[in-house]
Amino acid sequence: MRELSSGPGRMLVFVYGVFAVAATGRSAIQLGTEAGNAPFAYTLSLVAAVIYLVATTCLLLGGPTAWRVAVGACAVELVGVLSIGVLSYVDTALFPDKTVWSHFGQGYAFLPLVLPFLGLAWLRSTAPGRTGATGA
User: Fold this and answer.
1) What is the rounded distance in angstroms from the CA atom of residue 125 to the CA atom of residue 50?
2) What integer pLDDT is reported at residue 35 of this predicted model?
3) Residue 5 has pLDDT above 50, yes or no
């Protein structure tokens, strides 16, 4: 099995780590100081931060279990960014302030929309037992 944090995986670890820190910081400040303004949106940002943290940790740890958890985290991330992206356009009252996933991550240069696709593609290429997924 190819190491999850090798090659392109290193860039994914870095980007996921940055998003984990950014989303955690932003949501903590928003929930701590302005929770009444958009509690649903700010809570979703905290959920996104946890998912980014899980993905970062699993990509760093590697191994079959971490790989499976990372796939789950990326899948939840993808569903989240797509559903929250749509919801933020349909029900704008729920999102009076930008969050990581609102408007498909527009406030973050749409990277939250692209990131789960990149993560899942990398995980697919490093799947345990996959022919050609070995290396050092």
Assistant:
1) 24
2) 87
3) yes
How far apart are alpha carbons 126 and 5 in whole angstroms?
Answer: 10
Q: Please report where in the chains the tokens 């990581």 appear, as a residue.
A: 100
Position 135 scores a pLDDT of 46
C-alpha–C-alpha distance, residues 68 and 29, integer Å: 32
| Interatomic CA distance for residues 34 and 72, integer angstroms | 31
DSSP secondary structure, 64-115, as one string: HHHHHHHHHHHHHHHHHHHHHHHHHHH-GGG-SS--SSGGGGGGGTTHHHHH
- Per the CB < 8 A criterion, the answer to whether 19 and 34 are in contact is no
Tokens of 88: 């933020």
Place of tokens 């939840």: 76
Q: CB within 8 A of 133, min separation 6: which ones?
A: 1, 2, 125, 126, 127
Look up the pTM and report it: 0.89
Convert the pLDDT of each residue in 9-33 to its tens digit: 899 999 999 999 999 999 999 999 9
* Buried/exposed 64-87: b ≥16 CB within 10 Å, e otherwise: eebbebbbebbebbbebbeebbeb
